[in-house]
Amino acid sequence: MRASRHAIRQKTKVRVQNKKSADIHISGAEGIYKKTDIHRIVKKYIERALSHPKGRAEKIIITIEEIKQKPKEIPSLPLTTLSCSTPSEGKSIIRQLLKYTGVSKSAIDTAFNLIKKDNMRGAAVITAEKGDRLEPDRERGIRVSRLGISKPLIKTLSARLSRYNINTDTVKEALILASKVASCKEIIAELCVSDDPYYTTGYIASRNFGYLRIPDIKHRASKSGGRAFFVNEKANINEIINYLERTPVIVKEVSPCRGVTTVDEILNRHYK
Fold it and tell me: Is residue 71's pLDDT more than 80?
């Protein structure tokens, strides 16, 4: 599901070259479901699009596609929330952790600059050493698609998240997406900041330290946001696109979910 509304155009003598840029993204959602669940899920997606904090959608596009390829089965990433109280502290935490995964300052700066500009619809693919961008279409970026979680495990994941009062669709869907991204062998780490002005928790994720939620990653009411994948210097971008956009993946095992911890505890646990 993709939901949007038209941007309010100011009365200026500016020519709109790309009509797509005049639409404001409101909400998006996706999953892999059985045929018997289609009606329930479509209703849920429509209700989300019509009652989103970013505004009421004026256009809702729902695509239903039969997947004939057997999905690859993966575990979810272990989930932890980091102690963080300000955006500057959050950026410092991100830099510390990405440094230990082998991501350079140049690559991190590139990602933060893109997130600040907030002009991409998908994710940027950035080489971890030189900070070069690899995605063919820099406006569209890369979109992670064909992903889900097996029905019996939804309750398991919900129960584990409920212990820490974070059992929301936003958290569950982000964790599933990050788990697919991390299962791509070419990707070292991911950074994500939501463009929702009312959702200020971002995350970084990798196979090394799992899915780390970072509260207050940006100021409330900020519309900036974006997603970046840091990859090996010699990564094959076509293989990455094929895996993330076209290969069906489903979570068949739920990893542990933990409460709030500090960045030092994460570093001591994984790198000392």
Answer: yes
At 267 the three-state DSSP class reads helix
| Type of residue at 169 | D
How do residues 209-230 score in pLDDT, each as one tens digit? Answer: 999 999 999 998 888 899 999 9
Strand ranges (E), the chain: 2-6, 23-28, 59-61, 72-75, 79-82, 123-127, 147-149, 187-193, 202-206, 210-214, 226-231, 249-253, 257-261
Q: Is residue 82 a contact partner of residue 266, using CB atoms and an 8 Å limit?
A: yes
Closest CA to 181 of 154, 157, 210, 155: 210
Cβ neighbours, 10 Å, residue 36: 7
180 contact partners, CB below 8 Å, separation of at least 6: 74, 144, 147, 244, 249
Q: Average pLDDT, whole number, for the chain?
A: 90
Q: Rounded to whole angstroms, how far apart are CA atoms 133 and 110?
A: 9
DSSP classification of residue 6 = E
What is the DSSP pairing of strand 210-214 with strand 79-82?
parallel
Q: For residue 227, what are its two tokens?
A: 């997603």
